[in-house]
UniProtKB/TrEMBL annotation:
InterPro entries hit by this protein: P-loop_NTPase
Organism from which the protein derives: Paractinoplanes lichenicola
Protein name listed in UniProt: Sulfotransferase family protein
Source organism, top-level taxon: Bacteria
SUPFAM superfamilies recorded: P-loop containing nucleoside triphosphate hydrolases (SSF52540)
Amino acid sequence: MARRVFIHIGAPKTGSTYVQNVLWNNVEALRGAGILLPGKFSAHDEAMADLRELPWHPNPAWSWDKLVARAAEWPGDVVITNEGLGAANNAQAARAVRSLRPAEVHILVAARDLWRTFPSMWQQSIRARGVWSFEDFIGAVERGTFEDFWEHHTANRMLRRWGDLVPAEQRHLITVPGPGMPRDTLWRRFASVIGIPDGVCDLSVAPGANTSLGAAEVEVLRRVNRALGDRYPHRAPYQRVVQRHLVDAVLKQRTNEVRFGVGPDRAEWVLDLAEQQIKELDEYPCEVVGDLAELRPVDVAPVQTPDQLHRDQVLDAAIETIIGMIGHAEQLNLQLPQPRESLRRRATRKVRRGLKLWS
């Protein structure tokens, strides 16, 4: 049975991609240090979906129970990481923690300031096949009609939902460092909770954070999603086609120069929310790794929202996206065997087999 199990449950858009890249690119080094990541990255995602009863994987190879069984075979420490775990409901979280005992279960949650979280979260929803405008998204949060944002995408509620299941000393809140901090600060905070010594993991082999799209690019994707109708539903079909061939191959490769954010008219509202968030987390008994003050926005400079883009900006981005997809299609074509050559080779093999029969 594992000695300790660390469940990293998110929140989304808190540098989890960077942390997971470090972990998965150093699996063998971590095993040598007595720390197991059971299965592969896909195993944790499939186990998360199984725990939450989400039909995201048509033929999953992993279930939550299978992941738990693999963890139980390890005599040292185990890390389970998936930012979708934070959205588990009370019963699902309780099942997860209960299934891992008698190991000592630790809950890891990361928090990021709301000024950066709002635009990142909206973009993530569009990249998950969402169709609502940024104004619709932020307006729903402001009016209190989108409680899922607080339940599934921020640290406060998910920390209580999961943290209440374990003793206070086994709850860990990691704050995402602000701009200007060393790139590896987040990793070092994460590693300190688990007890990964410096030098065990090679940070140079891990890619950075999940690339963000610019305002025009994410608006193009939003309109594509809306026009898709029932084609390529979320999650696997959309990821296999749209995410791979449009987002990863084309949109992420653009300069994405036009940044976007909440907008100056809501700055005071966001600052007030940040103070409420800091107060709630300060009152919750857990280990804070970092500084809660980092959840207070420090740069609320005026920036446009995607809804304020001129139609020509969106049109130009759409045209450039089509050009990018033409180039992507050409590259894919070059990677495939030429049809005529393939037919010629098959015909030659048949002739040779025939000659052998007659010889």
